[in-house]
């Protein structure tokens, strides 16, 4: 069953689909943007000042199908075939974190379904 509807060419998401992603051992799944290392999606294990430790994280090298990181965090990508997300890493420590956006379950699933981008 699809939980979206298109009205006048615009896709809308069922409100229940926008629930936050389930936590893993109390860690929240988020989009994390840094000053110079780029954007990541993963579980925020620890945060202190501008430093954050992510678990089960993927770098969001290039995305398509979402106008902004905010939309990506809420709805995921509508064009996974155009996205470049490398493999998941167990742990990454990010410095100079400038933005953390909690993700919905739908968006988390969307990120997971993007094929691994590799050289």
Please give a structural write-up.
- With 119 residues, this protein is mainly beta.
- The chain has a single domain, classed as Roll (SH3 type barrels), CATH 2.30.30.
- It has two helices and seven strands, in the order βββββαββα.
- The chain is globular, with a radius of gyration of 14 Å.
Key terms:
119 residues, two-stranded antiparallel ribbon, 13% helix, SH3 type barrels, globular, single chain, mainly beta, five-stranded antiparallel sheet
Mean residue pLDDT: 91
| Shape, per Cα inertia axes | globular
Give the distance, in angstroms, between the N- and C-terminal Cα atoms. Answer: 36 Å
Helix and strand element order = EEEEEHEEH
Ordered list of secondary-structure elements with their pairings:
Layout: E1 4-7, E2 10-13, E3 28-34, E4 39-48, E5 51-59, H1 69-75, E6 89-94, E7 97-102, H2 105-113
Antiparallel strand pairs: 1-2, 3-4, 3-7, 4-5, 5-6
Helix pairs in contact: 1-2
Quick summary of this structure?
The chain has 119 residues and is mainly beta. 13% of the residues lie in helices and 39% in strands.
């Amino acid at each position: 069953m699809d939980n979206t509807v298109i009205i006048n060419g615009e896709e809308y998401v069922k409100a229940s689909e926008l629930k936050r992603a389930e936590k893993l051992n109390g860690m929240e799944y988020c989009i994390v943007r840094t000053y110079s290392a780029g954007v990541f999606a993963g579980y925020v294990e620890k945060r202190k000042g501008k430093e954050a430790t992510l678990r089960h994280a993927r770098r969001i090298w290039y995305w398509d199908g979402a106008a902004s990181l905010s939309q990506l965090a809420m709805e995921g990508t509508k064009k996974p075939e155009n996205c470049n997300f490398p493999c998941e890493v167990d742990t990454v420590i990010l410095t100079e974190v400038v933005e953390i956006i909690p993700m919905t379950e739908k968006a988390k699933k969307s990120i997971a379904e993007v094929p691994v981008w590799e050289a």
